[in-house]
Amino acid sequence: MERGKAASPNEFEAIETHTSLVRWSKAYARSAIDNYDFDVSLDAVEWEVSTRAKRRAAAVKSPSFSDAEVGTPRTWNGDGPPSCTMSLSWRAAQSFEYEEWAATLRHELVHVEQFQTFGSTNHGTAFKERADQVDAPVRVRRFSDPKYVLTCTDCGENVAHRYRDCKLVRHADAYRSGCCEAPLRCLEP
Ligand SMILES: [Zn+2]
Ligand SMILES: [Zn+2]
Hints:
Pfam families: SprT-like. By secondary structure, the chain is α+β, with helices and mostly antiparallel strands.
């Protein structure tokens, strides 16, 4: 995906690396800022992928200012707001469908917008109103176990898991296990 190109659902399905997850999510954020009129400067946002996050799909890490409050606009000296970090959970990105991941990013963009405007962010009334305007959930769904488990039809060993529908899931019997070279079977636990 080139810079400036729209972040399409198909490209989301094809994400296989941390770099492409960040690239896609950034491109999506850029288009969401235009479409939903977010007051966000992406220049002041860093991106990272977390492989350890077990529950939170994404999070915004920002410096905290004890005197900052949502609702009280903050004046930034010099170059504008300090940077904050959009931290994306790799496992969530693998487990969410496009729509839900996009809505998750909009939720996090509300946090970024609050932080850049007020120096603080929370899930209070102002957040709820804004989330509603940008069609984002107030709470992002927790994500959990893989949707599909692939087992060896010979020994029954679990050989792989997938979070989304894919070729391997649809045509499990066309693949061979490493243990027994037997066809795979796909289970939906
Ligand atoms: Zn939140
Ligand atoms: Zn086997």
